[in-house]
Amino acid sequence: MGLIHIDLFSTLDLVAQAPGRPGEDPEGGFTFGGWQAPLMDEAVGRSVMEGMQGLDALLLGRKTYDIWAAYWPHQNDSIGKLFNSVPKYVASRGNPELNWAGSTLLKDVREVRDSHENVHVIGSLDFAQTLLRERLFDRLTLWLYPIMLGAGKKVFDGGAVPSNLRLLEPPVAGSTGAVILKYALADGVPGTGDMTEQ
């Protein structure tokens, strides 16, 4: 059985909407599209590339798929070549046209996990929230950036189920203050205790 990786770029107040460019997702009047660009640096770029190693399928929400399908098929860099070569599974409530080569409408996340070793959900915030709520993921990588926007779609909007996570490796910090945190879903639910007894 393979692993489902969720990769999200987020502000410190956990806004993950439209990090890539202005106009990417203006839903709700969001005006900070492209907030990630001024904070990219070599360490973050290297971490993103390292995170792609072994990726053999993409699992995308419909909105992210539409944005990416308009961009990545025309890119010939290493990420473009990778994204264009792997299968792409698209979560949608409708029956969209999927014109990007290698794209298929998602039927069952478990079937995708059984067919691939490392499936990555990148962005796709609404869909990622569903996977988090249903505990249908194995790894969660958060790139946290040192800004707060105060508005926008947040990583855990709509709630999260009580879950334990295990840090996979020490955090990495970039020169602009971005911190990369890599977690694995762990068994059980968070425990409680009494700090006065310590």
From TrEMBL:
One of its GO terms (molecular function) is 5-amino-6-(5-phosphoribosylamino)uracil reductase activity. Transmembrane segments: none annotated. GO terms for biological process: riboflavin biosynthetic process. It comes from the Bacteria. InterPro entries: DHFR-like_dom_sf, RibDG_C. Residues 8-168 form the Bacterial bifunctional deaminase-reductase C-terminal domain. SUPFAM superfamilies: Dihydrofolate reductase-like (SSF53597). This is Dihydrofolate reductase. It comes from Actinoplanes derwentensis.
